[in-house]
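Two proteins were folded this term; both appear here.
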Amino acid sequence: MPHSRPAELPNAGGGRWPAATDNFFSTQWGDLEVGYTVTAGARDCTELYRRSGLPGGVCMCPHYGYVLSGSITAVYPNTDWPDELVEAGEVYFFPAGHILKYDRKTEHLEFNPAFALQQLMDAIQSTVDKASASVFDDD
């Protein structure tokens, strides 16, 4: 059976989704995509999702995870759902239809439906390939 330390997962940035650079480590186990992400600093994914042509400009992949350090805010546009702030030491579920925001360096471990994550990441990668620049790079 597969097992790994989060930081020892394959670098998705060097493989399937080069736009993810060195911030995203991920592999598929069964029907799940197991991912470990480290943001270098603050990031608002609003423009990333919009430019990637995601329906409604929102992420359509549900995310199940645990924040190791930092925090993540999930915003649900065009709904009456309140924003959710998840901080280090907390587990989360973000249903499809969200935008993720990070206010500082954040590390988190996720377990996502593999098919849904692949659709998301392929859309982002396609946008980057067309623009010939990484939208994942932290400035």
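Next, the second protein.
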Amino acid sequence: MFIYRCPVPSSWLDFNGHMNVIPYFEVFCSASNLAGRDLGLGLSYLDEGYSIFSGDIHITYVREVRAGATLTVRTRILDIDIKRFVFHQEMIDDRDGALAATAEHLQLNVGVASRKVEPFRADVLERLRKAQREQGGSVPRNVGRAATLTSGAPAR
């Protein structure tokens, strides 16, 4: 599991006094980038001729976040195949430990020269699988949620 922490500045607030949707996306993406770097999928991976592209992202907003909060994002690998993996993230409001939002990112392994989705090298795939095995933690909340009128309230 990968941990990222950040404060919530007042510039992230909208007219309702809570965090706007754009900072949620930015925080989740920053945490995803840091987790990717820690997995060896950052600039060094680019130098090796590969990059990770986002293929899909889904955010579930659970409760509002206000200025003065500090957020912790826990990122874990949910699923892997030979060309893709899914990050699952939980954004926690550190003031009371409550879940603020969750996100799922489909990450694609792309060849820099081809600009196409390509299989991971064997060592990278094993590194991802090892990280997934070792991450531990509780069962992720809001996995696979979709934007529908029938999906019900998100897990808190």
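The chain has a mean pLDDT of 91. The longest strand covers residues 98-111. These notes refer to the second protein only.
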